[in-house]
Specification:
TIM Barrel; eight-stranded parallel beta barrel; 24 helices; alpha/beta; metal-binding; PH-domain like; nine-stranded mixed sheet
Length: 1101
């Protein structure tokens, strides 16, 4: 049934006329309503309906249409029933009618009934199709909603932290771009105005100077009038216009104009009487002050124009030599102070060009016709070389004349201004000297300009200790050291025959991002050692030749941030430049054992970055064997059973790794991947707790891998890439340890070029993804020379993740050496830092009072058998030592979180003591002593890792399965304490005034900045008056809470320090409890007190 007809009117004029005529005649023929549309938009507007965008609205529409369908269906059935009744009545009527009429009526009714039946059938088909389509849409929408709600509610997805910040960043960039475009248009318009007025400004300044110097003016008030005559804004407006529209093309020109406007304005404020006829009187016939200014005038203010060499066209500062000298001392100071950069550029460029000009003059000779013509035209009697040397002499003459002028000035007559002028010119003189020496450097392979600013240069004695043959050069070498912001150059000072000027022959250089600095060498405070971190081939030792040692202080402190030569003094506390190839400057990392990647990202953003952790050690992330059998259920060591070099573990996918890397690096937290370069997954079925695997194992990328016969297709590695089968029977033989199988694991043959190349590709992929360095697992099983070849072939760190250009990856090697192993940990120090297992064992023995008392910590350091400070990564426990799985160690020889108090004391001491290049905090999950293979907490529904959960105090809940030692408040406070010293001069942070009160009660100071006290006695209170080295005042103990947020109260204990820096200590006995009972004690006492300058209560007057 047609209810309405829409007619689209033609657009052409002729067709439109025909359509209107035909419509008028045929309009009545339509049996339904007709609507004439002029254009397609009218038709579209009529059919625009609201789009249903919810399940509820769609369901309501379906219900309404279902009601209409039932009503229409009833009407159709009623019509059919009535038709059948009518048909039967006609057939059974007793009235006699004509046969033709009767037959026609019956035929019409039958035809209508057939049409009605067809309409009913088609209507039912349409309704079923329509209803099924709407039901399908509803079901799909409901599934999408459920999936979306599951996605939003699932763990590890961060719509606010990830999506929203990116959207905000895009919007911010869009706004900035729009604003910059608008600003560029404004700058272009102002540039046009600026260029038009430059010539006018020059003319105005020239006329102003002539007017002010040729006439005696009592009061100058015509600058605005002159400006208006030349249609020029005021100097302040002109400067504002210049600052808003400066471009590189007109900057030099406009800066000169601005300077001239300022000079003229100053002359208007302090008018200068005209110079009397006859010129300036002789210096010997005038007083000292007048003579000095007369001597300064032609040299400093008029540039070198009067001498015939036009290097600076600015001739706007004019001094008078008459009777008004007293009023011009401030003007003298102003002219110098306003132009330090101008003086430096002018004279440094001139001095640097002297060798080149001499070579030119040697080729031309002073008898050249052009030079003779210039000399005659200028009226110069002396040769050109004399005039070229005069500016060099002036650089030293300026400061002498200024000292002389300051000497004869009254105490209140511009003394401060003149002193500031003198200081300014001394700096300029030094900069010129530095630039001249810098030009004399020969043999440097790259452009010196790429090394950034030259900070300091001087002569030192240097030794070079070679790590290859461990021999020390007894005879020192005299070296001239140039310290740039990006590198340190070692040069040898020589003199060319026939020249009195020194040249500096380049010998070696070190990148500042790859070196560290020791405070002394063998107790000699005038020597310091430079440690190259990336490739420790040589370690130069530098000695100061001066008696005071000030040169050493300056050179050492110049490895500092946000300080200049003028602002630094001996003893200042400064922040070192970022040392370490990876760019980390915080010396504390945390091992988040088996954490999911996205949980690590959130921890970096909310805890690790804000609280001062420098990095995260990741559990292995490459594709590994997955064990979920009756024997093993995801043991922690399954991650070390490598199947390929693809990224994908139970912690997450490669996409999740990218997200984690970006968030952590943006938070200032570096990532250190745990990699194994020695072997692949074991081929022994018994190793996996099964004897029927047939070489097939399940991988973390959810695929089946057949590793029969040394076949690892994901790398790929084949049997030829491994050493021949042998078992490590004797760990004394290094050849056997490094070439035979470790616990049945196929041992890779690094002599094969292809093996090393595949490892380099894998490590470079990590670097591309923002990794800062690597923990090398089972490092003692790989030859150091092979490892060095791999490391030297790696790319630099990715600058897209905020690393400095040219920074190298950082490596620390897992080598267990208790001091008597055949493979020494020192073999790996030339290629990275080494894990110092002996540190953890000895610290545990001392705190447990097994081998020595607490007072023996006075000798803590290399004297205990440890590596040197710069090579040691120190820790209290690790993922394998806490389970007793290191063959050289037993479980009871180290401390773990299960002994809460002793474990805290050990970590506090580690973070309070300066020893250790890098310090690692362990973040564990719960396990039973009888089940040391247990892996990370698992979600029961899908077998994935269960992320950590936190209580109201931001600690990990016990039911979640995680311990999270790194979140303990006492450790967080100690991380901040340790970072405070990581950013300070090494001389300020050494251990001094070590004091003992019996065998198990000690105290010591960190410079004059901190005081540490530890009571490990099980019975006695630590009660004694001790020297703290701190200034007098009240200090809050950071172990029990530290300062209140407003710094006017302590959250825990406090310590009162008297005027002599002594304090009466009352430190109770520690509460030694197991970890599982620690949460039941409200105020657990650890027997430790630490205060430092940052925990001092502010004084209220």
């Amino acid at each position: 049934i047609i209810h309405v007809v829409y007619v689209l009117r033609p657009s052409g004029l002729f067709q439109k006329a025909i359509s209107e005529v035909s419509t008028k005649f045929s309009k009545n023929e339509y049996r339904c309503r007709s609507v004439i549309c002029s254009a397609l938009n009218d038709l579209q507007a009529i059919h625009d309906t609201e789009f249903l965008n919810s399940v509820e609205a769609t369901q309501k529409l379906l219900d309404d249409q279902g009601t209409d369908y039932e009503r229409l269906k009833d009407e159709i059935l009623a019509a059919a029933k009535n038709g059948e009744i009518l048909l039967n009545n006609i057939k059974s009527s007793d009235e006699i009618k004509e046969f033709s009429e009767r037959t026609g009526n019956v035929s019409s009714i039958v035809r209508l009934l057939v049409q009605l039946e067809q309409t009913e059938r088609r209507f039912d088909e349409f309704w079923r199709s329509h209803r099924n389509r709407l039901h399908k849409d509803i079901d799909e929408a409901a599934e999408a909603i459920i999936a979306g709600q599951k996605l939003i509610g699932s763990r590890g997805v961060y719509p606010w932290e990830i999506v929203q910040p990116k959207c905000d960043e895009l919007q911010r960039i869009c706004d900035i771009s729009s604003e910059r475009v608008k600003k560029c248009l404004e700058i272009l318009n102002k540039n046009r105005q600026l260029i038009e007025r430059v010539e006018t400004a020059n003319e105005w300044c020239t006329n102003g100077v002539e007017l002010l110097t040729s006439q005696c003016i009592e009061k100058c008030s015509t600058s605005a009038e002159l400006a208006s005559d030349f249609k020029l804004p005021s100097p302040s407006e002109f400067k504002k216009l210049f600052l808003e529209s400066t471009t590189s093309e007109i900057k030099a020109l406009v800066s000169q104009v601005l300077q001239r406007i300022d000079d003229v304005s100053l002359m208007c404020d302090k008018p200068v009487p005209p110079q009397p006829p006859g010129g300036a009187p002789n210096l010997l016939r005038r007083n000292h002050k007048t003579g000095v200014i007369h001597e300064l005038r032609p040299r400093s203010m008029d540039g070198i124009v009067d001498e015939g060499i036009s290097l600076n066209g600015d001739n706007t500062c004019n001094l008078d030599s008459g009777d008004h000298i007293q009023n011009q001392q401030g003007f003298v100071a102003l002219c110098f102070v306003q132009r330090p950069d101008t003086f430096y550029r002018l004279y440094s460029f001139h001095c640097q060009n002297i060798p080149r000009s001499k070579r030119l003059r040697d080729t031309l000779f002073d008898t050249h016709l052009f030079l003779q013509e210039c000399q005659k035209h200028l009226g110069h009697k002396l040769p050109l070389a004399v005039y070229l040397l005069k500016p060099v002499h002036r650089t030293t003459e300026y400061q002498l004349l200024l000292k002389y002028l300051l000497r004869f000035s009254d105490s209140g007559s511009y003394t401060k201004e003149l002193q500031k002028t003198l200081d300014c010119m001394l700096v300029v003189l030094k900069c010129i000297n530095d630039s001249m020496n810098q030009v004399a450097i020969t043999g440097f392979p790259t452009d010196l300009a790429q090394q950034d600013e030259l900070l300091l240069q001087d002569s030192f004695q240097a030794w070079s200790e070679s790590k290859r043959d461990i021999r020390l050069r007894i005879k020192p070498q005299q070296r001239h050291i140039f310290l740039y912001r990006k590198s340190r150059l070692f040069c040898k000072q020589n003199s060319k025959p026939g020249h009195n000027k020194s040249i500096y022959q380049f010998k070696n250089y070190l990148k500042m991002s790859q070196i560290g600095l020791t405070e002394s060498v063998r107790g000699d405070n005038k020597r310091f050692e430079i440690i190259q971190i990336a490739r420790k081939c040589e370690m130069p030792t530098i000695e100061d030749n001066s008696t005071s040692g000030s040169k050493y202080v300056a050179l050492a402190d110049y490895m500092a941030m946000d300080h200049s030569e003028d602002s630094m003094h001996e003893g200042d506390a400064v922040e070192f430049l970022k040392v370490g190839c990876a760019g980390w400057w915080r010396g504390i990392i945390v091992h988040l054992m088996e954490w999911p990647f996205l949980d690590i990202a959130e921890e970096c953003r909310t805890v690790l970055g804000p609280r001062g952790y420098g990095g995260v050690q990741l559990s292995p992330v490459l594709e590994h064997v997955v064990l979920n059998t009756s024997v093993y259920s995801h043991p922690w060591w399954e991650r070390y059973e490598l199947l390929s070099y693809y990224i994908g573990s139970r912690s997450g996918s490669e996409s999740d790794f990218w997200t984690m890397s970006r968030i952590c690096n943006d938070a200032g937290v570096r990532l250190y991947a745990d990699v194994n370069l020695n072997h692949m997954a074991s081929l022994s079925p018994a190793y996996y707790g099964s004897v029927s695997t047939n070489g097939e194992v399940r991988s973390s990328l959810n695929r089946t891998v057949n590793i029969t016969d040394y076949h690892y297709p994901g790398v790929p590695f084949t049997k030829s890439d491994f050493h021949k089968f042998c078992i490590i029977n004797n760990s004394v033989h290094a050849h056997e340890v490094r070439n035979c199988q470790k616990s049945g694991h196929p041992d890779l043959n690094h002599a094969q070029h292809g093996v090393k190349e595949k490892m380099i590709l894998m490590l470079n992929h990590f670097l591309k993804m923002g990794v800062a360095g690597f923990r090398i697992d089972a490092a003692k099983h790989v030859w150091p020379k092979d490892m060095k070849h791999i490391f030297d072939s790696l790319d630099n760190l990715n600058v897209d993740f905020n690393f400095s250009s040219g920074s190298r990856p950082f490596f620390y090697h897992d080598v267990v050496d208790m001091g008597s192993d055949s493979i020494s940990k020192t073999e790996y120090t030339p290629i990275g830092v080494v894990t110092e297992y002996l540190y953890a064992v000895k610290l545990a023995n001392i705190i447990n009072a097994k081998s020595a008392p607490l007072a023996s910590l006075i000798n803590w350091g290399p004297a205990m058998g440890f590596l040197s400070h710069q090579y040691a990564l120190v820790f209290v426990d690790s993922h394998d030592t806490q389970r007793g799985l290191v063959s050289e160690l037993s479980r009871d020889r180290v401390l773990t979180h299960k002994e809460r108090t002793k474990y805290v004391i050990a970590n506090v001491f580690m973070l309070a003591h300066p020893f250790g290049r890098l310090k690692r905090i362990m973040s564990s999950y719960h396990y039973f002593d009888g089940d040391v293979n247990r892996g990370a907490p698992t979600v029961s529904t899908d077998d994935s890792i269960r992320g950590p959960e936190f209580d109201a105090d931001y600690q990990c809940t016990r039911v979640s399965g995680w311990v999270c030692e790194h979140r303990w408040s006492v450790i967080l406070n100690m991380v901040a304490f340790a970072n405070y010293f990581n950013g300070r001069n090494l001389r300020d942070s050494s251990v001094i005034y070590f004091q003992a009160n019996g065998p198990n009660q000690i105290a010591f100071c960190r410079g004059h900045i901190a005081f540490v006290a530890i009571n490990n006695d099980s019975e006695r209170i630590f009660s004694k008056k001790l020297y703290t080295s701190l200034p007098p005042g009240t200090y809050c103990d950071i172990i029990t809470g530290g300062l209140a947020p407003n710094s006017d109260g302590c959250l825990g204990r406090h310590l009162l320090v008297d005027e002599q820096s002594y304090a009466q200590l009352q430190l109770p006995v520690a509460s030694h409890v197991k970890f599982k009972y620690a949460h039941r004690i409200a105020n657990l006492n650890y027997g430790v007190l630490i205060v430092y300058v940052e925990s001092k209560l502010r004084e209220i007057h």
